[in-house]
Amino acid sequence: MTGYATTERDISFTQYVDTLKQEATELGIDPTTVENAFQKAEFLQRSVSSDKQQPEFKMTLDTYIPRAVPEWKVKQAREAYKKHYKLLHKIGDEYGVQPSFIVALWGIETNFGRLTGRHYVISSLATMAYEGRREALFKKQLFAALTILEQGHISQDKFIGSWAGAMGQVQFMPTSYLNYAVDYDGDGKKDIWNTPADVFASAANYLKTEGWDSRHIWGRQVTIPDDFDTNLAGIKQQKSLAEWQALGVRRYEGQDLPNVDLQASIVIPDDKNGRVYLAYNNYKVLMHWNRSYYFATAVTYLSERIMSPKIVVE
């Protein structure tokens, strides 16, 4: 084990890892797995720096969306949808999730599996736990990562992810992996790193388990009146479409809201002068995946672009 810490701990990173190893074995994780997992673990200053990094300028949706979903990504998303059409629709039918959302999540998270991170997951999680700001969270993730190794789903040399420990082509944290990852091809391993079937099914299983409803869309962009009370906005506050209609909310083009018995929230990612959305339950599910209005909006935008114009598969 190598690496030196630059945080304000009273003990060294090496000493801290010894306490982690002891806790892991006390939790029942195989001692050999624990010892092997930490042999090449090292302190990653990159992880600490990335966690503390602040944006250089304030982003708005109007600047974020073109960066997150450029035209080349839309083109690649449509090509990926067409390439994996049969598999995506088989999984989509089984889990009740529209395939375009599976592809959109794949594209936003890792550029369709191309950018999955390059850090040893144990190093990332041990570093973040040692850094201390969210120690309990990252210790929980670390012990889950050791469980993944113990179960044999991935070899230690291929256990690679982001600086914060997110893994594979869908960037699951280890606890999400244990809760949602699927061995769709039946080879005994839940391979979200290299197997498209497992990647797609794991994403679909997450959405389904968190309450996805394929009968409805995610929501829509809307307009609000000048005197709209912004205290009513927020993903945790819901009203019926009829109630929002009575408060002056209209479709973006100006028409009345749909006459459908649905609960929805008003989402204002920036301010009243920016984009405003009427968010249905599926948008809330995307917020479970990543608690960012920008992330959820990018996924919904890419999903819509995948489906328009309609893709013809021969």
Question: Mind explaining what this structure looks like?
Answer:
The protein is globular, with a radius of gyration of 22 Å. It is α+β, with helices and mostly antiparallel strands and 314 residues long. It has helices at residues 13-26, 31-38, 45-52, 61-68, 71-83, 85-95, 99-110, 121-131, 135-151, 174-180, 196-209, 241-246, 281-289, 293-307; strands at 119-120, 160-161, 219-223, 239-240, 250-251, 263-267, 276-279.
State the main characteristics.
five-stranded antiparallel sheet, two-stranded antiparallel ribbon, 314 residues, 14 helices, alpha+beta
Strand sequence of the main sheet, in spatial order?
Answer: 4-6-7-3-5
Low-confidence stretches: 2-6
What proportion strand? 5-15%
Q: Considering DSSP H and I runs of 4 or more, what fraction of the residues is helical?
A: 40-55%
Mean pLDDT: 94
Structural class: alpha+beta
- How many helices? 14
Spatial extent as radius of gyration: 22 Å
Shape: globular
Q: In this structure, how is the largest beta sheet organized?
A: 5 strands, antiparallel
Quantity of strands, as a count: 7
